[in-house]
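[Help] Beginner question about ligand-bound structures

Sorry if this is basic. My supervisor gave me a protein sequence and a SMILES string for zinc ion and asked me to "get the holo structure". I don't really know what that means in practice or what format the answer should be in. Inputs are pasted below exactly as I got them.
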Amino acid sequence: VVELRYVVGVDIGATNMRAALADEKGIILKDVKQRTIIGKSAESITRQVVELIKRVVGEKAGKLKAVGIGSIGPLDFRRGKLISPANIPFKEIEIARPVAEEFKVPVYMLNDCTAAALGEKAFGTARNRENFVYITLSTGIGGGAVVDGHLLIGKDGNAVEIGHMVVDFEGRLKCGCGRRGHWEAYCSGRNIPRFVEYWIEKRRKRAEGSMLIKMIKDKKLSSESLFKAARMGDKLAMEVVDEVGRLNAIGFANVVSVYDPELITVGGGMALDNWDLISRPILRDIGRYTINRVPEIRLTDLGEKAVLYGAVALALKPPGLMRGDRWACSRPYKDLAT
Ligand SMILES: [Zn+2]
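Answer (accepted):
No worries, everyone starts somewhere. Holo just means with the ligand present. The predicted complex, written as structure tokens, is below.
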């Protein structure tokens, strides 16, 4: 009799955290989602991760084989830590060691979008693809890339931190990471409201009568309400959505110029909810900014669980992928593939 074993995948985001219990085929048996609670100390985040894993594992704790974690970056992935993440106000958050100690299993960790790329390759939109990039447009902006069959990881696990590429050399807006002009400072769910305010500041006269003005006054302006206003035909909202789209086109074009993918899959709550409005200007303008052949661009098949599936895939493929530390994952993707 072969004893059944299980793995856990964890998705650590700035807004939400998820954990899933999966079997050895990667079929998710149970998953839970929770808001990420920013407490007084970094340890509160660590504790929340441990508690979330406990909830999905339940009575299967003795049959757990490994834990895979996809987390917002930047990472020091060999030490299993988050280092000054843009959207969580702590300098260092230790994740892998406390989880390994609590559950007595190996823990593997990747940047969330790198994990999502692994999920796309194992279970999703990019099966049979050797060159593709996963991009999330969410609270933040990030990416994961497979180039010539290799999952790109980088020296610290931050090979594809595309949200912090400069798209505005004048650096008009400041990013959550503290630097200026980054793609994420303009187009992420968290920062779009500030971009709207900046846009309106320059166009006071034309802004009169726009729904956005009232939203700002009532403190109700969010990326979601911006897209809603654009859908209702608000001229200024449509203009901002278009400008955000143009900046997204620049970001996507940079990705195409760097990685030359045959496919870009897009995930993240904001993109999943507003793909019609978000994709239109990207598809229209991307060719103006990259010299490379424009690839297929579409939403992920894995929906809001792309990172979670990636974390499960990471936990399922441990043989040969560790370098030194238990939580390190740094081999070419083909070593991980079945
Ligand atoms: Zn930044």
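A couple of things worth pointing out: The pocket of zinc ion is lined by residues 86, 164, 175, 177, 179, 182, 184 (CB under 6 Å). Confidence is low (pLDDT under 50) at residues 319-338. Feel free to follow up in the thread.
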